[in-house]
Design brief:
Elements lengths: L1 H40 L1 H15 L18 E6 L9 H11 L4 E6 L1 H9 L4 E5 L7 H17 L4 E11 L2 E10 L4 H12 L17 H77 L1
Parallel strand pairs: 1-2, 1-4, 2-3
Antiparallel strand pairs: 4-5
Helix pairs in contact: 1-7, 2-6, 2-7, 5-7
Length: 292
């Protein structure tokens, strides 16, 4: 009976684990929905910014701004977006695999403890690390972006790039490396943003518009804000990817635990039946011996 007792204990342990993973799955599903709603809520602001940039871009000639100047790339600055916690499948592993593929002199800024731990463990140059709450406040995202922008303006890095897990669907999150600074073609970025956030491309307005202060001054203030807003929307998308990956991973863990419980239950029934059969044989043998 010791064997059946061990199996019962293991069945109980696996059932407890399944309850935990099921609860984590439901929590992740709830957080994923909130992250998606937050990303959708930020789109009207992005639409307005795209419209302003579209109007400014066509009316300002010979734009001079540090974000638009080309320079020799000696050191790249990459902002890596990861998670603070694990149990989210291969989400972080795919991002880290992308980091390994990047060559050259690179300086990293990490969002999330998993990225900072990986960069420190692999002895890559980590300039700073930041943490973002599940609510993803704009003030939280602004700090790492401003840190990298200052490093770019000071000349510590010659590019500002963003590496994050892009949300495709609940089962797929692709690691994407996209350049932010320098901005090679402002009009192409405006058109790209306009197509991403509205169903139709932004229309062209031929009416005369007066800007106060001058259009160059507005554009100079708007470009840093545009970069911060783009990173903010990206981090919201990365949060949705995190919760989606964790929901799928916990569902898979729950299903595996339930399958293991079924296998253990079958094993328990077989062991119990074998023990009963053995007892019946022993009683029959004892009765036969007594009658002889």
């Amino acid at each position: 009976m010791a064997n059946t007792r061990d199996i019962r204990r293991r069945i109980k342990s696996v059932k407890n684990t399944a309850q935990i993973t099921r609860a984590m799955q439901l929590v992740a599903a709830s957080k994923m929905k909130r992250a998606q709603e937050s990303a959708l809520a930020g789109r009207p602001y992005a639409v307005l910014m795209a419209e302003i940039l579209s109007k400014l871009g066509g009316r300002v000639s010979d734009i001079k701004h540090p974000f638009l100047e080309e320079r020799e790339v000696k050191s790249r600055g990459i902002l890596v977006v990861s998670t603070d916690k694990g149990l989210c499948g291969a989400l972080n592993s795919n991002v880290f695999r992308r980091i390994v593929e990047i060559e050259g002199d690179i300086r990293f800024v990490a969002i999330g403890r998993k990225a900072s731990q990986f960069l420190s463990r692999t002895r890559r140059e980590l300039l700073a690390e930041f943490t973002i709450s599940d609510r993803v406040l704009f003030s939280e995202v602004r700090l790492p972006v401003e840190f990298l922008i200052n490093a770019y303006l000071e000349g510590s890095v010659d590019t500002v790039e963003l590496l994050y897990p892009r949300y495709v669907n609940p089962l797929v999150q692709d690691p994407i490396l996209c350049p932010l600074i320098p901005i090679e073609n402002l009009n192409s970025i405006i058109d790209k943003l306009g197509h991403q956030i509205v169903e139709a491309p932004l229309g062209h307005d031929d009416r005369e518009i007066h800007f106060e202060p001058e259009a160059e001054a507005i554009l100079g203030e708007l470009l840093p804000l545009f970069i911060k807003q783009e990173v903010y929307q990206t981090v919201l998308e990365a949060k949705a990817s995190e919760h989606s990956a964790r929901m799928v991973a916990m569902k898979s863990a729950t299903d595996n635990a339930n399958n293991l419980v079924d296998d253990l239950t079958l094993q328990y029934n077989k062991a119990r039946q074998a023990a009963i059969t053995q007892e019946i044989l022993e009683i029959s043998a004892a009765t036969s011996a007594a009658s002889n």
